[in-house]
Amino acid sequence: MLFSFFTEDLIEAGCDEAGRGCLAGPVFAAAVILPKDYKNELFNDSKKLTDKKRRELRPVIEKDAIAWGVSMVDNVEIDKINILNASIKAMHQAVSQLVIEPQLLLIDGNRFKKYENFQHKCIIKGDSIYLSIAAASILAKTYRDDFMNNIHEEHPEYGWLQNKGYPTLAHRIAINKKGITIYHRKSFNLHQQTELF
What is the CATH number of the domain that holds 118? Predict the structure, then answer.
């Protein structure tokens, strides 16, 4: 069972991103404030949940949360400012959407840049520890998946319906054969060898 809060007396927003390691598409981030006494045994790091389970949990999170926000930074900006800065910027933008101001940001991972005057705490594997970060990971992942599913229709040869832009063998082979699209991150190592030995 994940923890409901890091500190009992502060309004906390869990923050997480999705899509950092992808070769194509934006990075998405979400911020979620849950009630202090909130419990949900189904919440977990989005990577540990099936797509079906994430889809079932998204409307639950959006209904039960006191506040939530989702934002994205596209591949063009990722190439300009790098993926770490883009991930942090997406989190900042998600926090800015919250209709209630948090007093503490719980950040999944070990890197963050202070946002305005908010306190923050970086927590490695936080999406497997705190409910609010797990909720943010589920929102970020499902909204990003929706985006990739949509652009798959434009470029079905890259298999984004299956790989969501991650560097699978099929995705790399398609890049080598077809070249890149407007959605690919040019600053990433796109043209690796794909031969199997």
Answer: 3.30.420.10
| pLDDT tens digits, one per residue of 27-59 | 999 999 999 989 999 988 889 999 999 999 999
Tally of structural domains, the chain: 1
Domain that holds residue 112: 12-151
In a domain, 1, yes or no: no
CA distance 140 to 34: 16
**Interval 178-188: pLDDT, tens:** 999 999 999 99
**Element housing 5 (H / E):** none
What does the alpha-carbon distance between residue 30 and residue 18 come to, in Å, rounded to a whole number?
A: 9
